[in-house]
Amino acid sequence: MIAASISDYRALARRRLPPFLFDYIDGGSYAEVTLRRNLADLEAIALRQRVLTGVDQVDPSTELFGRKVALPVALAPIGLAGMNARRGEVQAVRAADAANIPFCLSTVSACPLDEVAAAASRPLWFQLYMIRDRGFMRDLLEKAKAVGCSALVFTVDMPVPGSRYRDYRSGLAGAPGIAGSLRRGWQAMRRPGWAWDVGVKGRPHQLGNVAPVLGANSGLEDFFAWMRDNFDPSVSWRDLDFIRQTWGGPLIIKGILDAEDAAAAADAGADGIVVSNHGGRQLDGVPSTARALPAIAEAVGDRLTVLADGGVRSGLDVVRMLALGAKGVLLGRAWAYALAGGGERGVAHMLRLIEAEMRVAMTLTGAGRIADLGRDSLVAPHP
What we know:
The protein is 45% helix and 10% strand.
C-alpha cells in the first residue's frame, strides 16, 4: 500500500502490529463514544472558503514556548510508542527534529529519556503524571532538566487508568504471567516482520523511564499494574507547587475540558494547557475536544497558550483546531500509526502530508499566516 493519508498509515499499522499493540494505540475507553465524537465533531467543522484573496504565499510557521517551529504541531506523548517500531521513540524524535517541530516523550515510553534525548538535535518536551512516590517524580524532573528538556507537559486527566475493553480482549491488560505472555507471543508470531525487527532486535522491552524503580518487573505485563498502583488519584491544584519547586521551565497542563479548570490552570501559573480528553481513552461520554475548545480558548486564550488534541487526522483538521481557538495542535495517533506503518520515514512523510494539507486549507480560507486563522475562518463560530 502507498500511504497518501493518515488513514492509510492506520491501515498499515493494523497490518504490521500485533493486535495487542494496534488495539492499544487505536482504542478508547468503554464503548468508545468519545473516541468517535473526537473524529466526527472535528470532521463536521465547516471552514469558510474565500476566493480571490491574493494569498500566493503561505507561512505555516509559528512560535511555541519561545521556539520558532515550522508548523503549529507537536508529537504528543504516547505510552509504549517505542514498541511500534524498533526503538520507536528514537526514530520519531529524529523525524520531528528534521521537521523542526517539538517532540514530547511520555513517562511510560519504551525508550528512556536519556536515549531519546541523545538522538535529538533539539530540546525535547517531557510528559509527567502525578505519581505517589514524590521522590521518584523529583528524580524524573531532575533528569528532564539534565538532558535539556525545554517544556514539561503535566497530564492531569489520568489519576486512574481508564477502562479500555480492547486491551482486555487483546491480552495487553488483565492477562498476567505465562498465559498473558503466550497470548501476546502468539499474536507477535503472526506478524513476523514486527517480531524480528521489534520483538527481537528492538530489545530491551520495558518502561524505560520507570525501569529504575521496577527493577526486573519492567516488562509489558507490568504496564497497567504499575499505572494502577502508582498514579495518585489524590492529586489537586496544590500539587503544582511541588512541581514548580523542581521545574522552572514552561509548564503545560494537559487534559483540560472545562473552562473553569482552564481558568484554574491560568491562576496556578501554567504557561499553557492542552484541551484534551486523552484521545477518548479515559472518561467515555465527555465532550469532544472540538466542542470544548472554543469556550476554553475564549476564557483563557489571552492568559496562556492553548493547545489541543483529539481526532486530528489531517492538516485540514489542524487548521480546524486553530480556527476554533488553539495556538498549536498535538498529534497523537497520527504519528503512532505512521511510526508503525513506516518507521522514521513514515513519521517524516506524515508531517509532510500535514504541511501540504495545511497549505491548501490556508490558501482556500484566505489565511497567509497562522495568526490569520480564527473564528472568521469558520462558517459558524462554534461546532
